[in-house]
Specification:
The chain is an alpha+beta fold and 209 residues long. The chain contains three helices and twelve strands. It has a domain at 2-136 and 196-206. A hairpin with a 3-residue loop joins strand 1 (36-43) and strand 2 (47-61).
């Protein structure tokens, strides 16, 4: 249950970042295999956090091309890290369309969600209002120069009146987001690049076995 709730929270956070961009950038696609982006910021006005997004593989399932999106929460120590991988044919904003999910807490063995667990996660994400309603009230502010640890970018600024949040996107960057701020969070792009490999090297075990 702890794994389910933690993963639901992290997937919700990820989707809250990228669903905004997806509504304002209709052609948002999953980046090519190997591309990655790392963000750092504050949650709940006090908790520092770092998150790394990467596309670490691709495969075909029943004739459909899919990619493995890896989302990694980076802690102060290895046992505080959390890595999860989502196999999907959608964009980074469509984690509720996951076909397979693998999760690894710190130094514990990697676990693959069984169909029942995957169904629970899909249900939680599908019911979360952030995914369905986050884009309501979004309006473009204009093109601005924004400076983050990764550099200075000419970005498109959007404001979400409903959620009282702002975000800046650069369509040419991996995962497009360079900065996002809101009532309870503030995150900025630290670095990005190519050549990402899976952070999970062992063969995952299936949950419940």
């Amino acid at each position: 249950m702890r794994t389910t709730l933690t993963l639901a929270f992290l997937c919700t956070l990820s989707s809250s970042l990228f669903a905004q961009a997806n509504s304002c950038l209709a052609d948002l696609k999953m980046p090519p295999v190997g591309e990655w982006a790392e963000y750092r910021g504050i949650m709940n006005k006090k908790d520092s956090m770092a998150m790394r997004y990467a596309v670490v593989g691709e495969e075909e399932r029943e004739g459909t091309a899919m990619k493995w999106l890896e989302l990694r929460m980076i802690g102060s120590k290895p046992d505080k890290n959390m890595t999860w991988q989502v196999l999907t044919s959608g964009s980074p904003a469509e984690l509720d369309a996951a076909q397979e999910v693998i999760v690894k807490h710190g130094t514990q063995p990697a676990m693959k969600m069984n169909p029942m667990m995957l169904g629970i996660i899909r249900g939680q994400l599908g019911k979360n209002s952030l995914l369905g309603d986050l884009c309501e009230g979004v309006s473009p502010v204009g093109e601005e120069s924004v400076t983050v640890p990764a550099g200075t970018f000419k970005a498109i600024h959007y404001h979400n009146a409903k959620n009282k949040s702002d975000f800046w996107i650069v369509p040419s960057r991996p995962f497009v987001m360079v900065k996002t701020t809101g009532k309870n969070f503030d995150m900025s792009l630290v670095s990005s690049g190519k050549g990402a490999k899976s952070s999970i090297t062992e063969t995952p075990k299936e949950m419940g076995k």
